[in-house]
Specification:
Largest sheet: none
Low-confidence stretches: 1-12
Order of helices and strands: HHHHHHHHHHHHHHHHHHH
Number of helices: 19
Radius of gyration: 22 Å
Helix content: over 70%
Structural class: mainly alpha
Length: about 300
């Protein structure tokens, strides 16, 4: 199967691959249904490399029937060999980026990737790989995700859970280096960058519909880790929600008493404010500077 993978990526032209698609499909399906996990994962990599190299959409859509098998292989691989499961997720992201149209019904994909993202026992790279699959689809086919109920019920809730995975020990937290650019692979950085990129792809209406209920629940919690996650979610979605004045005014009310909150909540609130003042300018400065100024000095 490795030979098929290399053949697809570097040896054959897209037209050649398309002509042999039926023969390849038969071979791939045999490999995907093999008893050995290593053979199934190798077949998964081969078929995704093959499809990613084909430009003809009609040919690619002939392989839609293999997607359920591919998802099942990834789930099984993650149970017994996380490294091979992560490889499967990376291959799936490559395929999705090249041919997002294969996911006209992404419900199962979103369910599986959300479960992987929110499972803290998985390695950081595995959880990040799951988020990249969703991000590949949002970049290629944002309209499909806008219509998917799972974005509201599964994906954004999973990302919110990741935002809560902050260091609980204050002394350790104070020694940590800030990831201002959100390039780290830890759960919080992955969640922040994923929410930011999803917001850019999906737009204000979808973002507010998906995140507003989550933010409201987080902000009302007595758990500081949830409250700080709510502030962060407001901040990282602020670029997408700019222009919605009623939303902006409502969310800014939550910041007016941050000087009465704990240090950890204040930190996340100030981080969010930095994004908000940049993204909601100049409206937010005109409407919020008067109540904010006495509090911040």
């Amino acid at each position: 199967m490795y030979c098929f993978e290399v053949l697809s990526e570097v040896s054959l032209e897209s037209e050649q691959l398309a002509k042999m698609s039926n023969d390849f499909k038969t071979i791939f399906e045999q490999g995907l249904n093999d008893k050995e996990n290593s053979v199934r994962v190798a077949s998964l990599r081969a078929v995704t490399a093959f499809l990613s190299s084909i430009e003809d959409q009609e040919v690619v859509l002939k392989f839609v029937s293999t997607l359920d098998i591919i998802l099942l292989i990834i789930v099984e691989a993650l149970k017994f060999d996380e490294d091979s499961g992560r490889v499967g997720l990376e291959s799936l992201a490559e395929l999705t980026s090249a041919h997002g149209e294969v996911w006209k019904n992404p419900a199962k994909l979103l369910e599986i990737t959300s479960e992987v993202m929110k499972y803290p026992k998985f390695e950081e790279g595995t959880r990040a790989a799951a988020s990249e699959v969703i991000l590949a689809l949002s970049g290629a086919m944002p309209a499909v995700l806008r219509k998917s109920a799972e974005m509201k019920t599964l994906v954004f809730p999973a990302l919110a859970m990741m935002l809560m995975e902050v260091e609980k020990d204050d002394a350790t937290w104070e020694d940590q280096e800030e990831d201002a650019d959100m390039v780290g692979k830890d759960a919080v950085s992955t969640a922040m960058s994923s929410i930011l990129r999803l917001s850019e792809d999906l737009g204000s209406k979808t973002v507010i519909a998906c995140t507003d209920p989550i933010i409201a629940e987080l902000m009302q919690s007595p758990d500081w880790s949830k409250v700080q996650a709510g502030f962060v979610m407001i901040g990282v979605t602020s670029a997408a929600t700019k222009g919605n004045d009623s939303y902006m005014e409502e969310k800014m009310k939550g910041f007016f008493n941050i000087n009465q909150m704990s240090q950890r909540i204040q930190y996340s609130a100030m981080l969010a404010l930095g994004m908000i003042f940049a993204n909601w300018a100049p409206t937010v400065q005109k409407k919020a500077i008067e109540p904010f100024f006495p509090m911040l000095i």
